[in-house]
Amino acid sequence: MSKMKLATVWLDGCSGCHMSILDMDERLLTIAELVDIVYSPIVDTKVFPDYVDIALVEGAVASVDDENKIKKVRAHSKLLVAMGDCAVAGNVPSMRNPIGPEAILERAYIENASTQQQIPCVVVPQLLRVVRPIHEFVQVDVFLPGCPPSADTFYTALTALVTGASLDVPALTRFGA
Amino acid sequence: MTQTITIDPVTRLEGHGKITIQLDGEGEVHDAHFHVTQVRGFEKFSEGRPFYEMPSLMARICGICPVSHLIASAKACEAIMSVRIPHTAAQLRRMLNLAQMVQSHALSFFYLASPDLLLGMESDPVARNIFGVVAAKPQLGRSGIALRRFGQHIIELLGNKRIHPGWVIPGGVTEPLAPAKRDEILAMIPEAYANIGLALASYKLVADSFRAEIEVFANFPTNYLGLINEDETVEFTDGALRLIGPGGHVIEDGITANRFTEIIGEAVEPYSYTKFAYYKPLGYPNGSYRVGPLARLNIAKTMGTPQADKELVEFKQLALGPVQSSFHYHYARLIDILYGIEKIEQILTDPLILDKHIRATAGVNRLEGAGQAEAPRGTLNHHYKVDENGLITWANLVIATGQNNNAMNRGVLQAAKEYVKDGKFTEGALNRVEAVIRTFDPCLSCSTHAFGQMPLVLSLLSKDGQIVDQVIRS
Q1: pLDDT (tens digit, 9 = 90+) per residue, B156-208?
Q2: Contact between A104 and B396 using a beta-carbon 8 Å cutoff
Q3: Which residues in chain A are closer than 8 Å to B162, comparing Cβ atoms?
Q4: Which of A30, B69, B213, B222 is deepest in the core (most CB within 10 A)?
Q5: Interface contact B445-A116, CB threshold 8 A
Q6: Is A165 or B460 the better-scoring residue by pLDDT?
C-alpha cells in the first residue's frame, strides 16, 4: 500500500505551529515513515499537488493570496485540518480587524518610515479588509486549537488520522495552550 | 522582448517569499527582486494595549524566534518602568536567548540549508529536504534534529513551553531556575558538543566545493551591525551595538536601544512589505548594512569562549578584514551554536543562577522606551510610547530581516546574473538563487510584522517592463 500524502500550509500566522510540528524531534522521522510529506515550507515542491490525504493549515486568511491558497488546498485535499488558534479562530492576525488595512499600512509604510514613504503595491498581494479563520472560506474537517498545539498533540493527532484511530481533540489541547 | 522568471514560493525558508528575475531582450538578467508578501500590523493594533502585555503579544510575531521578541519587548517595557532587572533574571534570559539561537540556527542549517550543502544544489528536488539528509547521512541528520531539540528543550525547561513561553515579563522572569532543571541542562551539554563538532567537521569537508557559489552569493562589501560587549566579545542579549564599515573600521560604537531609533531609518520599496533599514547619516541605500551571524563575527574581536574562539580564528582567515560573502553565514552560524553551548554551560556555573530574586516591579516612570537584542538572524529593536496609564500609544519594530533586505536583494541579482544566461536556466540554477536567500536565514514572519506575507518569484520581462513569461517551478 502506498503511503498517505501529507501537506502543511502556512497562511497568515507566525510559523509557531510549523515549529511545533518540528518539535516532534526524532518522532518526525517516525511520522515520515507513515506518510510522504509532499508539500510544505520544509520541502521543495512549488505547486500544491493534485491530491493529498491530509492537509494541515496554519494561520488565518488575511490576503487575496491566502484566500486563493485555502480554496486550492481544500479542492485537492481529502482531510483538511485547521491547526492552531489563528486557523481555528483568527487569533492575533485578526486583531487588526477593528482598525482596517489602510491604517495598518499607513502606520508601517508612511508614519514609521523615514524615506521613500509609500504603500507597497508591486507583486505583493492585496490585504482583505477583515482577517478570518479558514472555516469561513472552506469546510474544515478537524480543528486543533493551541498557540501553538504542542508537539505531543501533533504526534497523537497525526498518528490517529493516519491509522484511523479515534481522535479526542479536547483531551489533547485547548485555545491558547 | 523581456521575460520574468518567478520563483513562488521560495521554499526551505522561514516564511512566504517570492523572487522575480527580469531578463532584457537579449535574455540577460536586468534586475531581480526578493518580495515579502505578508504584513500583519503589530505596530498599529498594539495601540491601546497595556504595556505589560507587549512581550506575550509581540512573541506572536514569530514562532521561530519568539524569545528575541520577548526579550527586546521586555527591555523596552523596563525602560518605561525605569528599572534594572536582577542579575539572576538577566543571566536566565541570556541563557534562554542562547538556547533559542542554537535551535533556530539548527533549523536554518540542518532543516533548510543542509539539503543544498550535503545533497547538492542540483540534487533531486523531491529528496532535497531534511528527510533526504537523514536518509543520505543518518548520523549528521540526526545530530541536527538533536541540536534543535537541545535548544528547544532548554526553552521548555526554563519557560515551561517550547514556543511562546510566558516566562519573560517586564521586570525579569516569572519563576527562578530549579536545581533539578539546571542539572538536566548540564547533562545535555556533552551530547550537544558532539553534535556541533560533527556539524563543523562535515561543513568544512564540503565548503571548498562551493567556491563558485561563495564568489556570487551576496559577495560584496557592506557595513555590518551587531551587539558587542565592552571587552569586544560577541553578545546576544545585553551590551551595545557597533556599526563597522566595509573595511572593518568602526563607524559608530556603544549604540544603545534609544540611540538606535535615532540613527537607523527605514525606507520603503514598492515591491516588498518588508522595509529596508539604513544608517541615517549615510542615507539610503548607501547606509545599508548586514546583521546576523556574519556581522556579529566580523564585529567581535573574540567570542569569549575557548572552543568558539578557535573557530573564530579560522573564520577570520577567510578574508583580510570583514568576511564579505554571505555564503559564510553558514559557517558563522555553526560557530554561534558552539559559542551558545559553551556560554550556557558557563552561565549555569554562576553561583547566583538559582537565586530567587528574579523580578523588579514598577509602574510607568517614563512615557517612552526602547529595547534591543540579537535575534538569531540579527539585531532586533522594539520602541514603544505609552500614556500615563501605561497604554501603548505608538510602537515601532526594526527587525533583522529588514536590515538584511538590501543585501538580500543585491545578492539575488548577483547570483541571477551568474546563473541565468541567454534567458536559459535550470532547476538547479533557480535553487541557487533561492539558496542565496537561505544564507541570510531571513524570518519572513518577523519581517512582515507590519502586516502581510513574502513571496519568492523569478520573472522574465521585456525591455519595456512587460512580463513575458513567469516560470513557476514544479
Answers
A1: 999 999 999 999 999 999 999 999 999 999 999 999 999 999 999 999 999 99
A2: no
A3: 19-20, 23, 150-151
A4: B69
A5: no
A6: A165
B432 pLDDT more than 50: yes
Give the model's confidence band at B458: pLDDT under 50 very low, under 70 low, under 90 confident, else very high: low
CA distance B434 to B71: 31
Residue A72 lies in a domain: yes
Handedness of CA A159, A165, A171, A177 (dihedral sign): positive
Query: For residues B84 and B361, is the Cβ–Cβ distance under 8 A?
Result: no
Q: What is the pLDDT of residues B361-392, one digit of tens each?
A: 999 999 999 999 999 999 999 999 999 999 99
Average pLDDT of the residues in B435-460:
64
Among candidates B44, B61, B275 on the partner chain, residue whose Cβ is nearest the Cβ of A103: B44
Q: Looking at this protein, which amino acid is placed at residue B435?
A: A
Whether residue A104 and residue B162 make contact (CB cut-off 8 A), yes or no, is: no
Distance of residue A167 Cα from the nearest chain B Cα, in angstroms? 23
How many distinct helices (H) and strands (E) make up chain A? 7, 7
How many structural domains is chain A composed of?
Answer: 1
Asked whether residue A113 is domain-assigned, the answer is no
Residue A25 has a CB neighbour count (10 Å cut-off) of 17
Indicate the pTM of the whole model: 0.94
Q: CB–CB of B162 and A13 under 8 A?
A: no
Residue of A nearest to B146 (CA): A25
Per CB-CB distance under 8 Å, the chain A contacts of B38 are 12, 62-63
| Chain A contact set for B452 (CB, 8 A) | 62-63, 120, 124-125, 127
CB-based contacts of B61: which residues, under 8 Å, 6+ apart?
A: A14, B40, B42, B69, B397, B445, B446, B449
What is the pLDDT at residue B445? Answer: 63
Enumerate the residues of chain B whose CB falls inside 8 A of the CB of residue A46: 7-9, 11, 472-474
Q: What is the DSSP letter of B282?
A: G
The CATH number linked to A56 is 3.40.50.700
ipTM over 0.90: yes
pLDDT tens-digit series, residues B91-146: 999 999 999 999 999 999 999 999 999 999 999 999 999 999 999 999 999 999 99
A119 in any annotated domain: no
A114 belongs to a structural domain:
no
Q: Side chain identity at B411, as an amino acid letter?
A: G
Boundaries of domain holding A85: 4-96+127-172
